[in-house]
């Protein structure tokens, strides 16, 4: 059965590839997304992506996921990870299982990045593996959905 995975990217992730490449690498968001779509397809699932720099737009997209058949969410909320009760409440409100991804190892960085409003609700958290972290999350999502 095809499973629907939604990948959400928060603020500044549209700059991937050019933004602080020593931290976030050289892969662009378009290339990352294309690879994830292909990977999901190879696993018998479907995957859509959404990026916004706006907290409310991310909240709206999470709320829409309750109605559009999304089985699993993969989210890198960027800086909103560390600030947004609204995104936390949206994820709790739709009650769709999710994995939190960070490209960098946030625990090796500034103290304000060590707290996440999302982690205790997440099925899992991946940090510091670069784009591979998203791939691991897609594999997990595909398996999770199949066994659900
Ligand atoms: C990030 C880590 C956050 O602290 C930062 O604000 C980001 C990206 C990551 O993927 O490593 O925008 O979520």
What does this structure look like?
- There is one protein chain.
- The chain has helices spanning 21-24, 29-42, 55-65, 85-94, 132-147; strands spanning 4-9, 46-51, 72-76, 98-102, 124-127.
- The protein is built from 5 helices and 5 strands.
- The N and C termini lie close together (11 Å).
- 37% of the residues lie in helices and 18% in strands.
- The protein has 148 residues and is of the alpha/beta class.
- The longest helix is centred in the C-terminal third of the chain and has 16 residues, at 132-147.
- The chain has a 5-stranded parallel β-sheet with strand order 2-1-3-4-5, with helices on both faces.
- Helix 2 packs parallel to helix 5 (132-147) and helix 3 runs parallel beside helix 4 (85-94).
- The mean pLDDT is 95.
- Residues 12, 76, 78-79, 81, 102-104, 106, 113 line the site of 1,3,4-trihydroxy-5-OXO-cyclohexanecarboxylic acid.
- 1,3,4-trihydroxy-5-OXO-cyclohexanecarboxylic acid binds at residues 12, 76, 78-79, 81, 102-104, 106, 113.
């Amino acid at each position: 059965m095809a499973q629907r995975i939604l990948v959400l990217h928060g603020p500044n992730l549209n700059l991937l590839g050019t933004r602080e490449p020593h931290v976030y690498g050289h892969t662009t968001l378009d290339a990352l997304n294309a690879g994830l779509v292909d990977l999901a397809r190879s696993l018998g699932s479907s995957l859509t992506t959404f990026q916004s720099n706006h907290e409310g737009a991310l909240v709206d997209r999470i709320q829409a996921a309750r109605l559009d058949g999304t089985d699993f969410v993969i989210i890198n909320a960027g800086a909103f990870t560390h600030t947004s009760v609204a995104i936390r409440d949206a994820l709790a409100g739709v009650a769709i299982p999710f994995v939190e991804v960070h490209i960098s190892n946030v625990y090796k960085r500034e103290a304000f990045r060590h707290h996440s409003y999302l982690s205790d609700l997440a099925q899992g958290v991946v940090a510091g593996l670069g784009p591979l972290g998203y791939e691991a999350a897609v594999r997990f999502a595909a398996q999770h959905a199949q066994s659900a």
